[in-house]
Specification:
Shape: globular
Helix content: 25-40%
Bound molecules: guanosine-5'-diphosphate
Order of helices and strands: EEHEEHEHEHEH
Distance between the termini: 51 Å
Radius of gyration: 17 Å
Length: 215
């Protein structure tokens, strides 16, 4: 009997062994000094950070979606223990650091200034491998996102941009919005959906490159 051979996925060899919430750090002293690199997630409130963290954990519920905003904290840390993926076989770990969201649905410039105050303390931590800036694929051109992108370029960190909730867009809106985002933010955004799983393999590839190839 003939059987179709499944096409191997690019991250076929990447396996999430464990994913767990570590701590809600209120200051840099509260960050565990365990040598595990951090990849920081930055974005507006409701952009989909919690959903993305849960999707990266293969839909285990680590992060509470739409949790009360505005609580004073530096970062919620989630630790992922992973086997293989880009860089070859072997066990590695990363902390995803969920920084406070800036602004609300149409958040303005003040809210980015507020985040900056908190985040700049976090960015004094020397174990940060990179930053992922999340923007909502449905709303290109928000002042707060453009301001945040400009601010991130001043930090001298490797930064990638992810466009969330692409499942909510038609083909044509998606193409148009991704182009608009690239023009406004000065960099192409990786399309992503925590609902359909689109983009998760690419994001894992990115996280592996950042975390495993630290100097
Ligand atoms: P956070 O404030 O950035 O942590 O955002 P959440 O993860 O709490 O998401 C905010 C809202 O957007 C929730 O109602 C989620 O269910 C929804 N959401 C998040 N990601 C996606 C996605 O990829 N697709 C769709 N359709 N909804 C999403």
């Amino acid at each position: 009997m003939w059987r179709a051979t499944p096409r191997p996925s690019r991250t076929e060899s990447l396996k999430v062994i464990d994913a767990r919430f570590v701590t809600s750090a209120v200051d840099v002293a509260g960050i565990p000094r365990d040598g595990v690199p951090h990849v920081a997630l930055v974005g507006r409130s409701n952009v989909g950070k919690s959903s993305l963290i849960n999707a990266l954990a293969r839909n285990r519920t680590l992060a509470r979606t739409s949790a009360a905003a505005g609580k004073t904290r530096l970062a919620n840390l989630y630790r992922f223990d992973v086997e293989g993926g880009p860089g070859g076989p072997g066990r590695w770990s990363v902390h995803l650091a969920d920084l406070p969201g800036y602004g609300y649905a149409r958040g303005g410039r003040e809210s980015v200034a507020e985040l900056r105050g908190i985040a700049e303390r976090y960015f004094t931590y020397d174990g940060i491998a990179g930053v992922i800036h999340l923007v909502d694929a449905r709303h290109p051109g928000l002042d707060s996102d453009v301001d945040a992108a400009e601010w991130l370029t001043t930090l001298n960190m490797t930064t990638a941009t992810v466009a969330t909730k692409v499942d909510k867009l038609s083909r044509s809106d998606r193409t148009r919005n991704l182009k608009a985002l690239e023009r406004q933010l000065g960099t192409a955004a990786l399309p992503m959906s925590a609902v359909s799983g689109e983009g998760l393999d690419d994001l894992w590839t990115l996280i592996a490159r950042l975390s495993r190839h630290r100097p």
